[in-house]
Amino acid sequence: MTRSPFNSNWSYRPKTSIFADVHGQSSAGVSIRLPHDAIIGLERRADAPSGAGGAFFPDGAFEYLTTLDVPLGWADKHVALEFEGVYRDAMVYVNGAFIAQRPNGYAAFVVPLDGFLEYGAENTIRVDARTHADSRWYTGAGLYREVHLWVTERVHVAEHGGVRITTPDVDEDRAVVAVTTRLDNTGTLTRTATVITEILAPNGDVVAAERSPVTTLPQSTGVIRQRMYVPHPRLWNVDTPALYVARTTVEGISYDPEVRHTSFGIRKLQLDPQNGLRINGDSVKLRGACIHHDNGILGAATFADAEERRIKLLKEAGFNAIRSSHNPISVAMLEACDRLGMLVMDETFDMWADSKSPFDYSLAFPEWWERDVEAMVAVDFNHPSVIIYSIGNEIPETGHAVASQWGRKLTEKIRELDDTRFITNGINGFVSVLRDVPALTEAATSEAAAASSLEAAAADGGVNALMGSDDDFMDQLVGSPLVTAATAESFALLDIVGLNYGDVRYQMERDAHPNRIVVGTETFPSRIDRNWKLVTEHPHVIGDFTWSGWDYLGEVGVGRVKYAGDADEDSFDGAFPWLTSWSADLDITGHRRPMSYYRETVFGLRTDPYIAVRRPANHGRAFTLGQWSWTDAVSSWSWKAPTGSPMILEVYSDADEIELQLNDHVVARTPVGTRRALVADFEIPYEPGTLTAVAFQGGIEVGRSVLRTASGPTLIDARADKATTPLRDGALVFVAIELRDADGNLVNDADRPVSVTVTGAGSLAALGSGRPRTFERFDQHTHSSYDGRLLAAIRPDSIGIINITVDATDATTSAIQIDVLPDNGALPITVRPDSLESIPA
C-alpha cells in the first residue's frame, strides 16, 4: 500500500473558457514539476490589481493538468489525492467531471477518487486555481505545495488524522503514550482487522507495543485506542528535539499489511501566571518571529529544503519560536521544526466573516471554517513543535459582542479536536474598535490629531499607517477603557491573551486579571529592547513575536527608511518597484540584517559587539523611521567614499563602553545606551583599513569585533549548503554567492550583474538578492548583487552530477559540483511523518 509523490508530469496554463479552447484561442500548457507558483514568474507592473500589498504582481486564474494511469487491479482499492495546499478556490476534476473544491488556499485536503476513475485506462486530473484581490500580502497561486497519491485497501488508516498520538502523563521513569487510530472502510463488506502499534525510540529500538482487533462495517469508521508505556523517555524540547516513531501495522485485510510511520515527541506543557510557559517543567520565554509562507526568490512554492533552511537560519539568529502568519503552516516546515527544535504558534485565518480584501476568504468562512480548522488540527496534531493554536489575526469581530461569538465557536471546536495545546488570538485593540470612529477620536491624544491621522490612514496605507504613525496614539488607544470593554469577551475565551502591538496592556492585564497569561503575538521590531524587558520581568508574559522574522513579498516598504525627497516619502507603502516588506531580521535570501544582531544582543545571546555602518551615500539626508523600520546600516568598512568622509556607526553591545580603533589608533570611546539601550553611536571620518570595536565592562575588555576594507581583485565566493542531495521533489541546493577579496572581505559597495549557469543533473530554480526595491525577476540566469550578495536555488532533476558556474564582470569565476543521489524515502533524522510503505507478505 502506498502514499507516493504525485508532483511530476504536470502542465499549467492561464485559465480560459471552454469556448476559447474550442476555437483554439487557449495557450498550450507548460510542463512543470510541483511545487509550483504560477505568479512569481509573471511581470510586475505599477498598476497591478494587487498593488503594494501584493508586491505589484498580477492576479490570474490557472489550470493544472496531469494524467493518472489506473490499472484494472485498482478497482478493489481505495484511491485518493492529497493536496497540501492550493491557492486559491481550488476546483478538482477527474475526466472532465467536477469532484471537489476547497476555497481556502492554505488548507490541506484529501479527495477520494473512488467512483470517478476509469480502470484500465488513462485518467485526466485537472485542478483550477485563482487569485484576485483576496489577500493583504503576496500569496502566489496554484499547486504551490506538494500533492500525494494514496492507493490503499478498502479498509485503511484514514489519510488525514488517521493516527493521533498524545503523551498525557510523563515523568522520568515512564511516559504514557496514547495512540488513537481511525480505520476507514470504503468497501462493501464488513471486515475485521488487527491494528499493531509499535513505539520506536530515537535510536530505532522498539520500546513499547500493543495490538487490537477492530471490525468495521461497510462505509463506516472504526476507532482503536491503545495506551502504552515508554520507559525512561527522552523528552522533546528546543535544545534536544528527540523524536519517537509510532509504527502502525494493519493486518488481516490483504496479503500485504499496511504500515504507516508517524513521528512524535514526548513532552509536557504547563501554563500558569507564576511560572509562565513550562516545557517538561522548565520555564521557557518565547523568542518569537512572525513569518509569512512565501520562500522569497522561490515565490510561494513550498520546497521542503527551503522550509528547513528558514527554520535553521531563524534558530541560528536566536529565535526559538515562530508564528505562522496568518495561515496554517506547511507540513514541510512542521517537520523541520520538529527536527530542529523550533516552537510553533499555528494560525487559522487572517479574517473571519468580515472581509479585509474585496474577494478574500471571508466569502467562504461561514460555510468552510469548521472543515478548515479540522484540517489544520489534523496536520498539526502529532507535531511536538506545535504548542499554541491561534484562531485569527487582527479580527475586527473581536470588538463586537455578537460577531465575537465566532471566536467562541473556533476555540470550542479546537478544544474538541485537541485539548493538549493552548489557544490564543492575535488581537489588535485598535482593529477591534476600528469602526467606532467617534469613540476612536475621543480616545486619541486630541480630536484634531485623531481626525488628521484617520484622514491620512484612509488616504494611504489604511490601518497599518495609523498604527505605525505615532507611539503615543497607539498606546493610548490600545490601553483605553474603550478597547478594554470591547475586547473583554474575546480575551475571556482564550488560554493565552494574544496582543498585537499591545505591550501597553501587559501590566494592565496582570492587574485586572491575575490569572491571565499574555503573549505578544505581534510587536514592533523597533521596540524589542523595552518589550523584551517586559517579557523577562513579568512571569505572566510568555514571549514576544516580532514583525517580522523573515522578509517577505508584499506589504512593500513597510520597514523602509523614508528619506526626504523620495517620491514616496509621504506614503505608508513603498512605490513601485518596491518588492518586499523590509521589516524583518533576515532578508528574503536568509541574510541577517543588523537589526537581527541587535535583537540577539537584547536576548542576551551575544556578547561580542556588532558594528553597523550607515550608508555614506545617504549621509546628511533627513529621514524618518517607522515602527517597523531600522536604519540603513550595513556591517562593512568597504565603501566608495573619499577618505575623510563623515561616517555614522552604530555598535550593538551589552557592555558599558565601546572603544573604536581605526588602523591601530583609538579614534573614539563612548558609553553604551546614551541614545538607545545597548547601542553606542559614533561619527568618525572614513579611512580605509581595519576598524575594531572593543567592548568594556567595568573598565575590562569583554569582547571585540573587526571590519576590514576589501582591496585587490574581486573574487566570487560561491558556497553550496550541501555537497550531495537526494532526488526528491522538495530537494534544493542553495548556493550563497558573495563578492569578496582574496582575504575574504566582502565587497559590498560594487554591485554588479552575476550569472549562474547550471548543467547536468539539475536546473536553476531561482536566482536573486535581498534587494527590497528592484525591477529584476527571480527566474533569470543573471541577477544583480545587493550589498555584495546573491542566492541561487538549484533543483536536482536526475541522478548524476550538477555543474554550477558563477561569473560576473571584473570578477573571477567560481565552479561547484553537486552529487544527486537516489532518494532513500526518508528525510534526515526521522522517518517522514504519516508516510506509507509496502512490506512483503
From TrEMBL:
GO molecular function: beta-galactosidase activity
EC number from the UniProt entry: 3.2.1.23
Keywords: Glycosidase, Hydrolase
Domain named Glycoside hydrolase family 2 catalytic: residues: 277-425
Top EC category: hydrolase
Residue span(s) of domain DUF4982: 645-702
Listed InterPro entries: Beta-gal/glucu_dom_sf, DUF4982, Galactose-bd-like_sf, GH, GH2_Domain-Containing, Glyco_hydro2_dom5, Glyco_hydro_2, Glyco_hydro_2_cat
Pfam families linked: DUF4982, Glyco_hydro2_C5, Glyco_hydro_2, Glyco_hydro_2_C
GO biological process, one term: carbohydrate metabolic process
UniProt keyword Hydrolase, yes or no: yes
Glycoside hydrolase family 2 immunoglobulin-like beta-sandwich domain mapped to chain residues: 164-267
Chain ranges of the Glycoside hydrolase family domain: 716-816
Superkingdom field: Bacteria
Name of this protein: Beta-galactosidase
